[in-house]
Amino acid sequence: MHTTASKITMLRMILIPVFLIFLYLDMRYWALAVFIIASASDAVDGYIARHYNQVTNFGKFMDPLADKVLVITAMCYYIEAHQMAAWVVAIVIFREFAVSGLRLIAVEQGRVIAAAKSGKIKTTVTMVALILMLVMPVWAPGFSHTFDWICSILILLTTVYSGIEYFVKNKDVFKDAD
Description:
It contains seven helices and no strands. The chain is an all-alpha fold.
């Protein structure tokens, strides 16, 4: 059964290549609209899933995957456009794999590691920073390079902090791991 929430998650996955097409066609405002819709759909499908008791295993898997793919897609474009350093994106990807691995180990022990507040803050900061990086070259071309670095540093700081917090708060997972 496909719930309303899972349909919204699938829409977000479909919007990712649309976002890229608009970027490569240099249609930044259309890309911006698609990115905002895709980002906002995360909150909408989460609300629907919880409010109408439509939480599914499909949603638990696809929702965070859709978020990660959307963010990493934008960041890869920014690397190519010389707006973000590859090492920043590498750290973001490392954190995502590390936290996902931590969650897998916890699941094997019958535990679920819920999203932490710092993880939600990281996601919000990242989405807002990526949106601003999309429009800054148009709004303030002379300031965009500096602004890109500010956004990159904010993404990096919230990413590293939330990753460390997940591991510190759940270090006991490794005591029980074989």
